[in-house]
Amino acid sequence: MMATISDRNQVRRFQAFYKEYGIDMLLVTLGQGTAASEVLDSFGLEAVEKALLFAFVLGEEWERIKNGLQRQMRIDIPGTGIAFIVPVSSIGGKKQLQYLTEGRGFEKGEESALKDTKYELLVVIANQGYIEPIMDSARQANAPGGTVIHAKGTGAKKAEKFLGVSLAAEKEMIFMVVRKKDKNAIMKAIMQQNGLDSKARAIVFSLPVTETAGMRLIEEDEEKQGEKEEA
Hints:
Blueprint lengths: L1 E6 L3 H10 L5 E7 L5 H6 L5 E7 L3 H13 L10 E4 L4 E2 L2 H7 L18 E9 L3 H10 L6 E8 L2 H7 L6 E10 H15 L8 E6 L7 H15 L1
Antiparallel strand pairs: 1-3, 1-4, 2-3, 2-7, 5-9, 6-8, 6-9, 7-8
Helix pairs in contact: 4-6, 5-7
């Protein structure tokens, strides 16, 4: 998953750039820059209105895109923005994989996993207005609560033609940190009840989480449950 952070007035410029690389499907949401600091100054990320653009790229595509960001977009110049990628550990089904990659020929290999990780971040992208049924499905599979942000889909003509699904609409993005052992069941529950064949048109994928803070109560409950099962 590729994330780009830029000033809001640069969104159209980045959209046009990514389109040159065959990436039409972007999710765009808005944010606010934080107060300036020495670190932020070095990146040119002062306290202004920001835009976040999310897209999915293949490993071999990233090298070309990165080179283009540096040469064409001059992203290394402070104030232009930053871009980074996060590995996706799993995607909820072949159809969703094809949708996210816009049918660009990616062949799914074995599910990637980091050793000794207890949690993964589930990201659900769905049509606006379907948060409750999605969360109901997730909770049935032992999911905790989630955090929701609003986003706007752009382009996705390839995905629409390929799958008959349009991303150019109001979207909700739901973030859930879940136990790794519960991940597959939660993803399956969401897909079965709120997947691409439903009105929610939900897409779900997971990102690896290497460290957590604030999960102590969940871990204590898990330990108590384990002690009861052993007894």
